[in-house]
From TrEMBL:
Protein name, entry field: Aminoglycoside phosphotransferase family protein
Organism: Streptomyces cavourensis
Gene3D superfamilies: 3.90.1200.10
Domain Aminoglycoside phosphotransferase: 36-210
Transmembrane segments: none
InterPro entries: AGP_Transferase, Aminoglycoside_PTrfase, Kinase-like_dom_sf
């Protein structure tokens, strides 16, 4: 009999693996609806939906292995990172989905959320004020007008599967929708900026690729994530993770 593996679990949702089946449990049906819809529209490989009985969504396992993890080593070759860049570009070039995703939050809302997070990090003594101030300044580059594209919204490297130099699938689409293309590129290279050139080689340079904006998203995403991760039992201070990303900007 297959064992039940807890892939990830926190107060908002949980993912379990039983053999070649992943069971995603999410109390927020809207998030699950968004995931199923996005996978049906995305022009890149996604997991097969086996069945759905809210709050549970059953997905088939993808072939291959994850490209890497934040804070851990990466397994892919430069060609695999370039292939991932090409897959991201294919997604961004697709027709716009009906929903606005996580990468599509308004600049005003994002600025308010960021300033609140920065104040809490300093007031609660989580991070030094100079570290927060420097990264808040860098994050400002991401707070600018942008043209919406079809974004994944949570494109961590652990969500991209490869087999050799081929992308075999992308998982976790609950935050997908209209959004900023550079948010996806920054999320994908967060903590692994040494692979940014490979990703951009596959993505293509015939579009507006402002590296300061990508770096700004590294700072912005990390500043927002630290408090949430601590609250939900994760460690943003682990080597190579969000706090190290912030320190690298110093």
């Amino acid at each position: 009999m297959d064992e039940v593996e807890v892939v990830v679990a926190h107060a908002e949702r949980a993912t379990l693996r039983v053999g070649d089946v992943f069971l995603k449990v999410d109390a927020d049906r809207a998030r699950s609806d968004a995931e199923v819809e996005a996978m049906s529209l995305a022009p890149v490989p996604t997991p097969e939906v086996l069945w759905r009985r809210p709050p549970v969504l059953a997905l088939a396992a993808l072939p291959g292995t994850v490209l890497g993890r934040l804070g851990g080593p990466t397994t892919g070759s430069p060609a695999a990172w370039a292939a991932a860049g090409a897959a991201i570009r294919k997604l961004h070039d697709a027709p716009l989905p009906p929903r606005t995703g996580r990468a599509g939050r308004s600049t005003a809302a994002l600025t308010a959320e960021l300033d609140g997070a920065c104040a809490s990090l300093v007031t609660d003594g989580v991070l030094p004020a100079d570290l927060v101030t420097r990264n808040r300044r860098a994050a400002g580059a991401a707070l600018r007008p942008w043209t919406p594209v079809f974004t994944h919204g949570d494109l961590q490297i652990a969500h991209v599967f490869v087999d050799g130099d081929e992308v075999t699938g992308i998982i976790d689409w609950s935050e997908a929708g209209r959004g900023d293309a550079l948010y996806d590129l920054a999320t994908f290279t967060l903590g692994h900026e040494e692979h940014l050139d490979d990703v951009l080689a596959g993505y293509g340079t015939d579009v507006d690729l402002d590296l300061d904006v990508i770096r700004g998203w590294w700072s912005l995403r990390s500043l927002l994530a630290v408090g949430w991760l601590i609250e939900h039992g994760f460690d943003p201070f682990a080597p190579g993770c969000e706090v190290d990303v912030l320190r690298a900007r110093m």
